[in-house]
């Protein structure tokens, strides 16, 4: 009797997991019938944005990360503040820092012209992030699609769910674990810092106070980042090649050239991830493969699918 009911519990549990999985299933061919020109529109929008400013590939990639970690990949990060909605753009990790919103707007209006009311802002962002990486010489992959857009945002969740540059390795591991991402995913996704830049405000304490930093590197960064003020001065996250998506980030980190405190936590800080960081520093192919796997996993965080959410007409406001 106990055995039978235990089995019944198992059958029901498996059925529930399958049901949830079926609802949440994204597919790379989702818009093949309804918007065949989607991928080429996104690609051409990203091509001109990156031609104008290579850093934009990085900025859009980060936008996607900050979307997915806050209540899932639902384009909540793109919503503007209004009288009825407090968005995520002014949350601490995002304010004066996240950028690229106009690039997504421009792509969205071309997609709306071609396929009105069909493609979510969340999916456009997922494709644009992939293209940004690839246009800066990174890998490419088929992006699972079929996400829908949130009608709301959460500034509180943006403040609490996004990792801080002062985090230690244990906190980074647990923040990613809470999103279903393991240590390999954490290290691979951190390799996104092979492109783009950080503000002085994000690396000041590292270059003045950390001891696990190359001394000459710290001195050079202090020259762009005074002890007080000039918070917005920029430095490349990868001192070797910040407009090329390669494994330079990991080669920096194993030599104590990590720009953020959180970057350097991935090697030599007792976080238990040193061997993964060292592997990516040696083997750019392993990094590229694991980055793709982890990007797809990150893109699968709690999507709205089916009839949940909506397809926004304007990425900045609910319909
Ligand atoms: C592991 C935890 C992470 C922390 C603590 C972190 C923190 C930061 C910080 C503080 C900046 C600089 C922001 C500024 O100063 O304005 C930054 C930039 C950036 N982050 Fe992360 N990040 C993390 C993971 C990720 C992930 C998973 C991705 C994407 C997959 C990502 C992509 C980027 C990119 C591309 C930039 C440069 C953006 C630009 O130049 O506009 N980061 N990150
Ligand atoms: C460095 O650490 C000291 C002592 O904790 C602190 O007072 C100071 O503000 C820190 N400097 C920076 C730039 O973070």
From TrEMBL:
Binding residues for heme b: 193
Cofactor note: Binds 1 heme b (iron(II)-protoporphyrin IX) group per subunit.
Site residues, Transition state stabilizer: 62
Residues where Ca(2+) 2 binds: 194, 238, 246
Record localization: Secreted
Single GO MF descriptor: heme binding
Catalyzed chemical reaction(s): 2 a phenolic donor + H2O2 = 2 a phenolic radical donor + 2 H2O
Name of this chain's protein: Peroxidase
């Amino acid at each position: 009797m106990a055995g039978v009911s235990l089995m019944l519990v198992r059958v029901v549990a498996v059925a529930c997991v399958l049901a949830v999985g079926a609802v949440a299933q994204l597919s790379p061919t989702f818009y093949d019938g309804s918007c065949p020109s989607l991928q080429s529109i996104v690609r051409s929008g990203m091509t001109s944005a990156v031609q104008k400013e290579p850093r934009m590939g990085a900025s859009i990639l980060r936008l996607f990360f900050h979307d997915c970690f806050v209540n899932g990949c639902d384009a909540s990060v793109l919503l503007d503040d209004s009288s009825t909605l407090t968005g995520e753009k002014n949350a601490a990790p995002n304010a004066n820092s996240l950028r690229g919103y106009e690039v997504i707007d421009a792509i969205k209006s071309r997609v709306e012209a071609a396929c009105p009311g069909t493609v979510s802002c969340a999916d456009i962002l997922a494709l644009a992030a992939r293209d940004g990486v690839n246009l800066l010489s990174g890998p490419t992959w088929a992006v699972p699609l079929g996400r829908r857009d949130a009608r709301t945002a959460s500034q509180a969740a943006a403040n609490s769910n996004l990792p801080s540059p002062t985090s230690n390795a244990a906190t980074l591991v647990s923040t990613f674990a809470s999103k279903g991402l393991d240590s390999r995913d954490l290290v691979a996704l951190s390799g996104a810092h092979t492109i783009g830049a950080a503000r002085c405000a994000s690396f000041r304490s590292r270059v003045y106070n950390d001891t696990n930093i190359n001394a000459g590197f710290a001195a050079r960064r202090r020259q762009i980042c005074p002890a007080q003020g000039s918070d917005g001065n920029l430095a490349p996250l990868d001192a070797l090649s910040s407009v090329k998506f390669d494994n330079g980030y990991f080669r920096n980190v194993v030599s104590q050239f990590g720009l953020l405190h959180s970057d350097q936590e991935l090697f030599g800080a007792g976080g238990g991830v040193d061997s993964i960081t060292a592997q990516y520093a040696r083997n750019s192919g392993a990094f590229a493969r694991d980055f793709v796997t982890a990007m797809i996993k990150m893109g699968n965080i709690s999507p709205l699918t089916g009839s949940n959410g909506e397809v926004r007409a304007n990425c900045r406001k609910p319909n």
